[in-house]
């Protein structure tokens, strides 16, 4: 469809369990979200992405769905959800829903049938294999530790689960399964939703032989056999033809391990698949060779190279999505900024980056307040299955507990899942009961009530960035060019639109840093569009000394 409204949109991601509790049971819910829509409208966002709200035993907080067409009891009813959609549309915003169809819950009716017998009509909705010499069919490891296979005594076979053993992978090779999914998607679209965020959508096609990685003992990451698998584009084209193309919607795929070249195949304007994907390259800059929990310092030059590669790589081909955190990641401020002395400055600086690149920015709940990572003293306070499984596995392998806890502090998903900090009252105004996960103890100084009142808050800076986006056609600028690429403390770039340029200069650290504009960039006049500091009088912008975490955005003409 011609209308590409999603290019001009800013998306706000809600993790419902932690957003707002309306009835004191300690769990965020749909009426709670409705009560905060004016807060989101004031911020200026256009689209809300709602993480899964479907019926679920909550092994993975709703990413294990037992019924795709009903609402999780803790979150409310389908009537509550319909009210939410109406209230979002009344405010001229849009709603996109999470689509989790690489796997379902093991409590989904399809799986309950599937495991009954080898000739059950639903057997082939999942991926079953006999054992190989009395052990798992192959050596793939699960994203959540251990083997990706679970033995099922009823029929003496194993089923595949790339995530938890309560998240069996669906078998996309089966055309009947695909039709059921398309029918379900159509049902939601006919209710009037505005699109989907598609969970690990590039994992749906597995190499049919399910070959082992074959790296010796133990379980291994089998990504080469299921990331961007052999039939994934065929499936997405089919989904697009049969469902997506019939609606004026936006789609964003979560795609693990994609390069810009891979991404172009998913989001290419002439590909008829998806509108955008989330890539993981920036999320890996602080991971060592042993993966996510192997914590290493990140390097600004590497970060700049990755962003430049994606900006240039998709230019004129497809659209970027822009994010630095979500419900699976630590808080971006703690990870890439300074969550103590320069919390305000660095949060605004990072926001400036996300909102001045080409693409659609995603704000994760609490980001607009400068919420930070959390350090719980005891593992018993953590709730995330990925974290808990890793803890057990690493402990059993004899790893030192301090090292494990440090990895959790730096990378654990619960960093982003502590409740929204609404005000300074008990439990941050999130609930009148006991929250399902503890509130970050810093809620008295970091909360929405205080941020909305303070015109210099991070929240109002986001509001201004969003306004700027529309007032100055920030999405329109093209030809991204990195400046001072070898600088280890500055991130600077220009983008061009006709004879105008957008110049962005960001100091990523607390030490002052010197910016030098290359001689070949010429202009008659300059205008400072936004900054996280009071502007200095008569600045010569060819040579600027940036203050700690300073962010400057100029329009050059
Ligand atoms: O970031 C990750 C890599 O370790 C994982 O936390 C994450 O599981 C991966 O990014 C895939 O994420 C999505 O699918 C998972 C779910 O747990 C995540 O919340 C979801 O965003 C399984 O549905
Ligand atoms: Ca509740």
TrEMBL record:
<dbReference type="GO" id="GO:0009313">
    <property type="term" value="P:oligosaccharide catabolic process"/>
</dbReference>
<keyword id="KW-0963">Cytoplasm</keyword>
<dbReference type="InterPro" id="IPR045857">
    <property type="entry name" value="O16G_dom_2"/>
</dbReference>
<comment type="similarity">
    <text>Belongs to the glycosyl hydrolase 13 family.</text>
</comment>
<dbReference type="InterPro" id="IPR006047">
    <property type="entry name" value="GH13_cat_dom"/>
</dbReference>
<dbReference type="GO" id="GO:0004556">
    <property type="term" value="F:alpha-amylase activity"/>
</dbReference>
<dbReference type="InterPro" id="IPR013780">
    <property type="entry name" value="Glyco_hydro_b"/>
</dbReference>
<dbReference type="InterPro" id="IPR032091">
    <property type="entry name" value="Malt_amylase-like_C"/>
</dbReference>
<dbReference type="Pfam" id="PF16657">
    <property type="entry name" value="Malt_amylase_C"/>
</dbReference>
<dbReference type="GO" id="GO:0005737">
    <property type="term" value="C:cytoplasm"/>
</dbReference>
<feature type="domain" description="Glycosyl hydrolase family 13 catalytic">
    <location>
        <begin position="13"/>
        <end position="417"/>
    </location>
</feature>
<keyword id="KW-0326">Glycosidase</keyword>
<keyword id="KW-0378">Hydrolase</keyword>
<protein>
    <recommendedName>
        <fullName>oligo-1,6-glucosidase</fullName>
        <ecNumber>3.2.1.10</ecNumber>
    </recommendedName>
</protein>
<dbReference type="GO" id="GO:0004574">
    <property type="term" value="F:oligo-1,6-glucosidase activity"/>
</dbReference>
<dbReference type="Pfam" id="PF00128">
    <property type="entry name" value="Alpha-amylase"/>
</dbReference>
<dbReference type="InterPro" id="IPR017853">
    <property type="entry name" value="GH"/>
</dbReference>
């Amino acid at each position: 469809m011609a209308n590409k409204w999603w290019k001009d949109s800013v998306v706000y991601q809600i993790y419902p369990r932690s957003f707002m509790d309306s009835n004191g049971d300690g769990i965020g819910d749909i009426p709670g979200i409705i009560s905060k829509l004016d807060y989101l409208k004031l911020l200026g966002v256009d689209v809300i992405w709602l993480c899964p709200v479907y019926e679920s035993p909550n092994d993975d907080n709703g990413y294990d769905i037992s019924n795709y067409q009903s609402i999780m009891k803790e979150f409310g009813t389908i009537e509550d959800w319909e009210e939410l959609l109406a209230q979002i549309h009344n405010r001229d915003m849009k709603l996109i829903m999470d689509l989790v169809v690489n796997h379902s819950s093991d409590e989904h009716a399809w799986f309950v049938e599937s495991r009954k017998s080898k000739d059950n009509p639903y057997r082939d909705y999942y991926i079953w294999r006999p054992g190989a010499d009395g052990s798992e069919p192959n050596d793939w490891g699960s994203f959540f530790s251990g083997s990706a296979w679970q033995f099922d005594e009823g029929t003496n076979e194993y089923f595949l689960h790339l995530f938890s053993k309560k998240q069996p992978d669906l078998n996309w090779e089966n055309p009947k399964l695909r039709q059921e999914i398309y029918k379900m998607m159509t049902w939601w679209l006919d209710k009037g939703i505005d699109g989907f965020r598609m969970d690990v959508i590039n994992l749906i096609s597995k190499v049919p032989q399910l070959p082992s990685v074959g790296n010796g003992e133990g379980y291994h990451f089998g990504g080469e056999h299921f990331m961007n698998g052999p039939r994934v584009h065929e499936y997405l084209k089919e989904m697009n033809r049969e469902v997506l193309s019939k609606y004026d919607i936006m789609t964003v795929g979560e795609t693990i391990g994609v390069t810009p070249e891979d991404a172009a195949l998913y989001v290419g304007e002439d590909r008829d698949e998806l509108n955008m994907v989330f890539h993981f390259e920036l999320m890996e800059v602080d991971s060592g060779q042993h993966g996510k929990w192997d914590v290493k310092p990140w390097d600004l030059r590497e970060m700049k190279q990755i962003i430049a590669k994606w900006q240039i790589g998709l230019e004129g081909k497809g659209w970027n999505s822009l994010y630095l955190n979500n419900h699976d990641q630590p808080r971006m401020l703690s990870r890439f900024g300074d969550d103590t002395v320069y919390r305000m400055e660095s949060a605004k600086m990072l926001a400036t980056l996300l909102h001045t690149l080409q693409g659609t920015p995603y704000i994760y709940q609490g980001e607009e307040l400068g919420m930070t990572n959390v350090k719980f003293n005891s593992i018993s306070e953590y709730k995330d299955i990925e974290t808990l499984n890793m803890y057990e596995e690493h402990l059993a392998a004899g790893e030192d507990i301090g090292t494990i806890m440090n990895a959790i502090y730096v990378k654990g998903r619960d960093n982003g899942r502590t409740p929204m900090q609404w005000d300074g009252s008990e439990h941050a105004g999130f609930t009148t009961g006991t929250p399902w996960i503890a509130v970050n103890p810093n809620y008295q100084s970091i909360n929405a009530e205080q941020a909305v009142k303070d015109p210099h808050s991070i929240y109002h800076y986001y509001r201004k960035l969003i306004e700027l986006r529309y007032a100055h056609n920030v999405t329109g600028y093209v030809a991204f060019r990195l400046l001072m690429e070898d600088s280890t403390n500055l991130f600077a770039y220009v983008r061009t639109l006709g004879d105008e340029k957008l110049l962005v200069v960001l100091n990523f650290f607390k030490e002052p840093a010197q910016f030098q504009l290359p001689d070949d960039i010429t202009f008659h006049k300059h205008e400072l569009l936004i900054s996280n500091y009071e502007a200095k009088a008569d600045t010569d912008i060819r040579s600027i000394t940036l203050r700690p975490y300073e962010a400057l955005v100029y329009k050059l003409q």
